[in-house]
Amino acid sequence: MVLSQDVRETLKSVAALSETIDGIGDDDNLFDKGLDSFGSVQLMLALEERYDIEFPDNLLNRRSFSTIRIIGETVNKLTLSAAA
Amino acid sequence: MNALVLRAKRVAVIAAAHADEVDRQARFPAEAVAALKAERLLGIQIPMQFGGESAGLSQIAEVCFTLSQACSAAAMVFAMHQIKVASLVSHGLDSDWHCSLMEQVAREQLLFASATTEGGIGGDLRNSLCAVETVGDVFHFSKDATVISYGAHADVILATGRRHPDAASSDQVLVALMRGQMSLERTSTWDTLGMRGTCSDGFKLEARDVPVAQILPKPFAEIAAQSMLASSHLLWSSVWFGIASYALDRARAYVQGEARRRPGQVPPGALRLAEAANELQAMKGTVVAGLQLFERAQGDADELGSIGFAVMLNNVKTTISAKSVDIVQRALGIVGLSGYKNGTPFSLGRPLRDVMSAPLMINNDRILSNTANLLLVQKGGGQLLSA
């Protein structure tokens, strides 16, 4: 089970958010907090590497990466289906 | 031919009559814009319930295409206006103030301009230095806008700025400023190779005591992703495609004239014409497919915000901007010196200079870098008829 703390650790590796991550709530919109398209791709790559998953194209949209909570849920869904 | 195209063609006749002078004097295409207002084309995108015509992006692209064959600058002014109106229409429906602005646009045919470029930031749309300073129910706003195309002639300027003075550079909002609410002090003059009539001067923009209701309620990040990038790439591409089509029409007329003069022989330029016509058709397919995919994705925020969609739009822009320059150059090769010379029926100097702006308006290298980044995660395996 991926917890929001794990997602936060990964987000720290994204330059646009590394400084501000501690002040961002689980439901805050990350794109409003400085995440841009370059950063969101770097985040996806970091998550794919860390959890050994691949985001399918239908999840490669802004909503899937909009908040820490949604990222955690998405990663959980993908790790579960990879294990099944 | 539908009624919209007929209206656009009437404007194009007026735009064409002044295009050389607009170019030579680097002046605003005032006659063409007056004709756009008279034909009520500035408000076509406004929803019918606010007095507009609810025109979709393809219809607007058709007008861009028609105008660009007469005067590239007038077509680009129309395209840039409609890109800003697209932001208002797509993201202003939840705000009473913006709904009444839509009514005013339809009624008075207001001209919209854009202030996104900023000193110290350049053309990076998604970052701002300037910020909205809210004091009670009003805000103050000051921006060193290094480019505001036709800013001195606009009735409304939509400007980006940070949400508040402590916000991150990408935490932006879009504010609507009416002509009477701001001062514009010119800081640079648009004296360029082509697209001279867009009058994209630099300005120091100052606005004080503007009601906060004029700030669009959606974050600019969302506006950029869902309406602005798509409408910019697709409408600009329609303009550039129109310039390329015009140039190839000149080349075709030239080759046909040669053929009539020497019956029984295929003129030497005919083969080059065939090659270029082939390329032009591929360009048309790219633009039309982009428009259709965009219209099909309307209302589907996930699709509009997806990586596949962004890659598709980026590719439309880079492909059409590069190929349109190529087509105009090929056309010039076909017509030869009568295209190189000004004042002949085949002159291509102005269209060539105008179209050379295409790969530079949001530099293709910047867009390709963005695409390169997106391709690091895109998985592929899509369908023939999807983005």
From TrEMBL, chain A:
Record Pfam families: PP-binding
Entries under SUPFAM superfamilies matching the protein: ACP-like
Domain called Carrier: residue spans: 1-79
Protein name: Acyl carrier protein
TrEMBL record, chain B:
GO molecular function: oxidoreductase activity
Keywords on record: FAD, Flavoprotein, Oxidoreductase
Pfam family of the protein (one): Acyl-CoA_dh_1
Enzyme class, broadest EC rank: oxidoreductase
Stored Gene3D superfamilies: Acyl-CoA dehydrogenase/oxidase, N-terminal domain, Butyryl-CoA Dehydrogenase, subunit A, domain 2, Butyryl-CoA Dehydrogenase, subunit A, domain 3
Domain (Acyl-CoA dehydrogenase/oxidase N-terminal): residue spans on this chain: 16-92
Entry superkingdom: Bacteria
Name of the protein this chain belongs to: Acyl-CoA dehydrogenase family protein
Organism of derivation: Methylobacterium marchantiae
Lineage, highest ranks first: Bacteria, Pseudomonadati, Pseudomonadota, Alphaproteobacteria, Hyphomicrobiales
